[in-house]
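Shapes recur. One chain:

:::
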Amino acid sequence: MTPVRKSLFAILIAAVAASAAVDPALLSLVPSGATAISGIQVEQSKASKFGQYVLGQISTENPEMTKFITATGFDPRRDLSEIVAATIGSPAAPQAVVIGKGIFNPARILTAAQGAGATVTTYNGVQLIGQKESDNVIGFIDASTAVMGTSASVKTLLDSRNSGQKLDAALQNKVRDLSAANDAWFVSTVSPSDFFAGKIGDAGMNQAMGGANLFQAVKAASGGVKFTAAGIQISGEALTRSDQDATALADVIRFIAGLVQQNKTPQAQQAAALFQSLQLSTQASTLKLSLSVPEEVMEQLFMPHSKMKGSAHPHKTTASLR
């Protein structure tokens, strides 16, 4: 299953669509206790220059990929149209579940998986394909809907689906608004410090994320990505506990951006390019941010290092897809 996982990850980065709101059927499958939800449209990804570039990084000459497509009849670059991901469980031990919309042949995929030594179990009427060395599973609710994640997260989704429990109406409305205005989007109902504190190697950044307790002041966060002809436009907002917290949080983000920009390693300098157009503003207890990232910067960030050294023309792959 490794080739398809790599392809799904690449498409997650590249996927774009024009003002397409989330599919209600996919949103209805998100477990009611989800603390973070994100989504991307894949259908029109080839219409974006950056989308074409990233899709081009999925090598058609990869023997494992070719074998997978031949055995299952599923090509994620062609047959996947939308992805919604949700984080469930406690912030200390979060689990992700991914819901995909596309064109699937469950019977053929199941046969191919079993032939490759995968295990198959049934839960709430859905067959789950897994591997002995991994806790991840994939299942097909129908020929157009797939779910993937840890065994526990997928079972939680199926339990929620059978119980008829739905997301909070206000959260559903927020998701619809974000997905209609952006090509990729996310919304979180918990503080980001719950996910990041103590998980960042740099001592200065780690202190800023958790030690100063400023990120714990964030009550909710959301944002989106809009792809343009020149690159991408990123926007986001964070609802904090007070006006003072919003101002302090803006200062912390500026501090983090400064740390990255001061780091002279090639990787850090590439990341620093993301902050060059950063704009921050506060409105009462809400912090808003935006930045524009040129396409060439995005390509440098996501281009494998070996390819960067061997090619001075990153658009060659993009052109080959046209």
The longest strand covers residues 218-227.
